[in-house]
Amino acid sequence: MIRFDGVMKRFGQNVVLDELNFAVEPGEFVTLIGPSGSGKTTILRLLMTLEQVSGGRIHVGGDCLSHMRRGERWVPADDKYQRQIRKRIGMVFQQFNLFPNMKVLQNLTEAPIRALGLSRAEAEERARDLLELVGLSDKIDAHPSQLSGGQQQRVAIARALAMRPDVLLLDEVTSALDPELVAGVLALLKDIAKTTDITFLCVTHEMGFARDVSDRVMMFDHGHVLEDAPPDKLFSEPDHERTRTFLQAVL
Ligand code: ADP
């Protein structure tokens, strides 16, 4: 579902990802861990096409995201091409990023109407089902500012699901929440991961959650995959000293 082939990403002289190779199978839940600055968020931003590769290729669902064919040649993909592929990818951000001037219902219907061409009635039906799933049916007419952080994040999750994505990217989704709201959001995500065939790529500092839901955990260091293993192996008996010291610092 996701494949990075020799991906390079530079910001000026700073090489952030260096010949990065990895793949995520359909339906897998893969968590990226590692020290701050190791390139985890850059990977998510490349998939959202908020950044472009400096070299190598990214594939999503069998199609190239980073490059497109022009006649016989492959050239860097343009925005119109990338928008088509990006429709398959949803993202939930640390800061929720809801549309503040729209009610909850409209937050959920806007993109499906505009980007998928759903009718308003279809989009609203989908939105109501999703609000029920995330336990916020009674907030359908609220504005984001009237909701708690946990409720806003549930709306953001529902908004991402409204696009029926194949891939869901989670970027530190509980970091901005009050501690007592974290568990509810994580339980919701676990439930979605277990009951759908969505492929997840998750950046988190919640090691208990990572261990609980991940099929695989990838430990990053300086833009490389240092270790890639099932969570029980990576958390209990990591191969690398660097992984061990990182885990000791965060657990
Ligand atoms: P992580 O998510 O693992 O903390 P990031 O992917 O955010 O790491 O950052 C990796 C490196 O890339 C850092 O050194 C960071 O300073 C750099 N970086 C990220 N985005 C930019 C940008 N837009 N411009 C310049 N440098 C950036």
TrEMBL record:
Q: Fetch the InterPro entries from UniProt.
A: AAA+_ATPase, ABC_ATPase_HisP-typ, ABC_transporter-like_ATP-bd, ABC_transporter-like_CS, Ectoine_EhuA, MetN_ABC_transporter-like, P-loop_NTPase
What residue ranges are annotated as transmembrane?
Answer: none
GO molecular function terms listed in the Swiss-Prot or TrEMBL record: ATP binding
Quote the Pfam families the UniProt record gives: ABC_tran
Q: Where in the cell is it found?
A: Cell membrane
Q: Which UniProt keywords apply?
A: Amino-acid transport, ATP-binding, Cell membrane, Membrane, Nucleotide-binding, Transport
ABC transporter domain span: 2-247
Please give the chief subcellular localization of this protein: membrane
User: What is the membrane topology noted in the UniProt record heading this document?
Assistant: Peripheral membrane protein
- Record keywords: Transcription regulation included? no
Q: Does the keyword Nucleotide-binding apply?
A: yes
**Similarity comment:** Belongs to the ABC transporter superfamily.
What is this protein called in UniProt?
Ectoine/hydroxyectoine ABC transporter ATP-binding protein EhuA
